[in-house]
């Protein structure tokens, strides 16, 4: 009888666990949508990140809900594998994408004095090597496996100390996206307590009977288009080619959510006719075309950066099949999706406060 993958991995020195297809394709795509519509400049060049505290700060708290069951499954898997049931807290949860030029040399995840509270790491790959990006292979310095080829849905779990020194090759093309969690035995570094406190403050006046979804707002974007922050926070409309979509979005982040939701769900919407009313889409006048060119010269100085942020090369299928009717239907679907998550968050928060942890609240309790 052959040993299971977990048993085989557990016998390795240093200890590490590789799980294939741990996340479903839909879970990966949902987290990708959240990251692409919410991320900010990361901790290294050509890296973008989305932390749970950042989602709260940008009025995107409902997007925490899809993380909850995944965090629970990962914590249980880490505790079972390393034999520390009920001993761990989640120290950090974040979506991290590495774009062309990003890389990191040999290191352990606790290699700074301020990171010593990190005891275990879980890295979930949300897209695939060769299909979505080139480069970006993950290497362990010692032990087996020596190299991981990132594939969507796979998870690598390992100790965060010097037993698992690792490196990541430079990204040559595309964007490499992961969900990364660190776990600690030190309850003083429990991420849940901080998040519950932030949620309690930001949702103080929200009511389950009137679950109004607030539009997203921009957090600090120092270092990225900082001279144009005011314009990014103003209402705007979308242009495609020489056509103007008349619906107004609250700010750039609101528009970005709609565009990325269309990329994720647009092709999956039922084939119901959603009629664009006369006047909803108009041709640009000459003065409007000049205004668009002026904005392009101001914001699109670095086309490589634009490709990194919007992953233009991966959107070719959606670009070819684009129509305003389906995009209009997508906006309605996005509102329904956001309302559903917002309502679930409002129902869950009292239980999280009561127990001091973030967990999946059973439907019968809510």
From TrEMBL:
It comes from Salix purpurea (Purple osier willow). Residues 80-185 form the Fe2OG dioxygenase domain. Its cofactor is Fe cation; L-ascorbate. Pfam families: 2OG-FeII_Oxy_3 (PF13640). Its EC number is 1.14.11.7. This is procollagen-proline 3-dioxygenase. InterPro entries: Oxoglu/Fe-dep_dioxygenase_dom, P3H, Pro_4_hyd_alph, Pro_4_hyd_alph_FE2OG_OXY. Keywords: Dioxygenase, Iron, Metal-binding, Oxidoreductase, Repeat.
């Amino acid at each position: 009888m052959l040993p299971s993958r977990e048993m085989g991995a557990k016998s390795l020195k240093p200890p590490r666990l590789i799980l294939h297809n741990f996340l479903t394709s839909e879970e990966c795509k949902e987290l990708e949508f959240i990251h692409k519509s919410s991320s900010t400049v990361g901790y290294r060049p050509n890296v973008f990140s989305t932390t749970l505290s950042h989602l709260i700060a940008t009025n995107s708290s409902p997007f925490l809900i899809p993380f909850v069951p995944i965090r629970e499954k990962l914590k249980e898997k880490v505790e079972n594998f390393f034999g520390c049931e009920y001993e761990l807290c989640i120290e950090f949860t974040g979506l991290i994408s590495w774009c062309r030029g990003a890389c990191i040399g040999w290191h352990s995840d606790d290699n700074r004095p301020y990171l010593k509270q990190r005891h275990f790491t879980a890295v979930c790959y949300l897209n695939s090597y060769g299909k979505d990006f080139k480069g970006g292979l993950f290497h362990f310095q010692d032990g087996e496996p020596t190299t991981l080829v990132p594939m969507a849905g796979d998870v690598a779990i390992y100790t965060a100390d010097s037993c698992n020194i690792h490196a990541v090759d430079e990204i040559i093309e595309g964007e490499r996206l992961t969900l990364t969690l660190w776990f600690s035995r030190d309850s003083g570094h429990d991420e849940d307590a901080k998040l519950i406190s932030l949620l309690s403050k930001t949702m103080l006046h929200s009511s389950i009977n009137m679950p109004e979804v607030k539009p997203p707002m921009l957090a600090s974007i120092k270092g990225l288009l900082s001279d144009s922050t005011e314009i990014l926070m103003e209402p705007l409309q979308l242009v495609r080619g020489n056509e103007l979509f008349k619906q107004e979005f609250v700010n750039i982040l609101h528009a970005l959510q709609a565009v990325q939701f269309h990329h994720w769900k647009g092709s999956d919407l039922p084939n119901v006719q959603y009629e664009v009313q006369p006047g909803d889409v108009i041709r640009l006048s000459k003065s409007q075309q000049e205004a668009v060119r002026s904005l392009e010269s101001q914001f699109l100085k670095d086309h490589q950066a634009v490709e990194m942020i919007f992953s233009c090369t991966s959107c070719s299928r959606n670009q070819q099949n684009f129509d305003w009717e389906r995009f209009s239907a997508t906006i309605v679907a996005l509102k329904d999706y956001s309302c559903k998550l917002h309502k679930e968050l409002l129902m869950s928060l009292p239980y999280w406060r009561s127990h001091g942890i973030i967990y999946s609240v059973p439907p019968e309790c809510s």
